[in-house]
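Hi C.,

You asked whether I'd gotten around to modeling the 329-residue construct. I have! Everything is below, sequence then structure, no commentary in between.
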Amino acid sequence: MQIGIAYDLRSSMAVPAGAPSDRLEEYDSEETIDAIAAAIEAAGHQPRRLGGGRSFVEAVLRQPPDLVFNIAEGSGTRSREAQVPAVCEMLGIRYTHSDPLTLAVSLDKAMTKRLVDAAGVPTPRHQVIRTLDQLSRLELPFPVMCKPLFEGSSMGIRRDSRASDAGELRGQVAKLLGDYRQPVLVEEFCPGAELTVGILVRQGVPTAIGVMEIAPRQGDPGSFVYSLEVKRNYLEEVEYRVPPRLPPELVQRAERVALDAFDALDCRDVARVDLRLGADGEPKFIEVNPLPGVSPVTSDLVILAGKVGLGYRQLIAGIVDSARARYGI
């Protein structure tokens, strides 16, 4: 079958004047698209590059593929990741990954937390700050984490995003409001291990392929922040442990939290769920990425998959197979 790849390249995106240095962090490289195309071809399908935005729309109107492999981040609003699947649904084209509703909701961290909390999934307490004046009504204990409300790929998350007092918090929130032009999520900081769980739907069943601990090579693990600086220098800054150096029963509880979040948000095909152990030692839901990066070298999901013996081509084929099974093709 012909499988079109929907994507947005970092090299084709414009950076507005005064934008923060991580403005294009979510977008993909040519190398990633090459790797996806090779994996699709190795699985016996015909890959076709569709791009994103207007180019994607024009390409699928001209010749609809049998299936769209969607990794397009979109641009503009907090609903940007929903753009490609929304077009696909409007035109009756089948596609991989989650639907527009799940992708739009999941990019908004507070909206996501409301849904998982309502489903009984443990998540740190949080508040959304839209103006500095609202900080006077903050009801969370320090330390706290500060993040842009609807960004991914650790955009806006730096080493100093963990605020230990009101002065640090005000400085962080002011910078985020100015740089990203969107509300700020302030949440309780969890001092335990940083974990990420890869989920792949196999034969219709969401399955945790593994749990990976992201452990700092130096410094205090209790104040570690998996920041943009760390991700850009991951070979020297962190150690990826699969399985985590935690009791097996705790790892199983982490898997359960991730799977419950996946279910609560009605994710499809694949996702990566980020967790952190709280002060009580239990796993807490931090956020989900139902459109996880698949760089063959640097993406957390790919690193995790490799450590459990799931090769890159197997991972991509697994995503395609899940979508095909959903559509009965």
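If it helps when you're writing up: The chain has a mean pLDDT of 95.

Thanks,
B.
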